[in-house]
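Predict the structure of Hydroxyacid dehydrogenase.
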Amino acid sequence: MNVNAGYTSLLALQAELPPEWDSKGLRQEIRRINDARGRKIIVLDDDPTGVQTVHDIDVLTQWDEALLREAFDSPETLFYILTNTRGLDAQTAERINREIARNVQAVATEKGKSFTFVSRSDSMLRGYYPLETDVLAEEGSRQSGRSYDGHLIIPAFFEAGRVTGGNTHYMVEDDTLIPVHESEFAKDKVFGYENGDLAAWVEEKTEGRIHASECLVISLEQIRKGPDAVQEVLLQAKDNVPIIVNVLSYADMDVVSLGLLKAEEQGKMFIFRTAASFVKSYAGISDQEYLPKERLIASGQEGHGGIVVVGSYVQKTTKQLEQLLTYPEIVGLEIDVERVLDSEGYTQELSRVIAEANTQLAAGNNVVVYSSRKLIAVDNKADNFKISQTVSGALVEIVQSLETVPKFIIAKGGITSSDVATKGLAIRKARVLGQVAAGIPVWLTGNEAKFSGIPYIVFPGNVGGERTLLETVEKIENEQG
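Done. Here is the predicted structure for Hydroxyacid dehydrogenase.
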């Protein structure tokens, strides 16, 4: 079926497909198989938002062997390592992935345990593909002597309306299917692309090394025949072939995951380039209600204000910020980006914002610190990185300089939330509590953090409607009593 032949509606697409496979009990079966295997599923997350579908697991922001030993000894099948590579240059991204692969292999050998890597990235196709999966495949082959049979490409993220059909990846907005290559995200200064058809996208991103026709495809029609049909396709995989996976729902995804586990039991080896929904399914993570306000406010800090830090420049974030600034219970503190790009202006601008933020938080007022919305960009990728890192560095310095413990912290945008977590709050390991709304995860900071035991809400730049950021703050305030 050619989805591009006039299908603009998700409902219309569904109507042309066989019904979903009866997935009742599949998630529990997936969990049982994983528990019996005793292996670790290790998600290398290229920004902090990837835990947006899971709960009650750990996320590491460092990957030294001591911390990895703790993770391997934990009872959970799954853990995340935050690499933040989407906010770094390609050379650094390669080094980090290689270093993690080697450290993990060393600890796994020491512990006598097996593991599987998932390279979690953006549901809008931004990030270092094929670099990251190439590095992981190369290191895996070098260390084990076995090559991977394939890498599964699964960018579907249902919580944010990202689905794949007919090999084309879509945003869903009000039931309308929008091919992602027509979105603002495809015009990204660093990770832009022209193709929403995933086989063509692979050819584009590999610069022709892999032709579109070489990709294996798992179609929706095959998935809806059940796990055995998926397994049959996966058993054909060899030589680390890209495998395009079409999915519209968790019912589809659970069928894929069970078929995948069956193929692995037949000796097949895979790595993964996916968005967040796959991890929940493949690890057998159960559904959980959104977190209540009691778990969004730091115990003992109820009298203080909370802080929202906004760095993302995508249009969705700007609209969400505009809505938040209409809320009477929040104080807006804008950072003039043109000033912080000047060394003298940087110090003056930050001193002003830091002083005001501390005053307002101590008085019990919520604040939103945000970079001015005029995007300052140049044609050179390296210089664009420097600009974004300078702005992010300013936001980090503000968090580092907070003297009042906030009752909650929200960071908006992938690079921003990563830098606030690792540099501003000095988090080494955090616990993922769950989500405050669809696709918006909440960490609990560890004992080593600048502020320990604080709910840290990681708000992706490309998630939610125009009012979702405002509604998150309202939920905390209006239900606080």
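Residues 130 and 206 are 6 Å apart (CA to CA).
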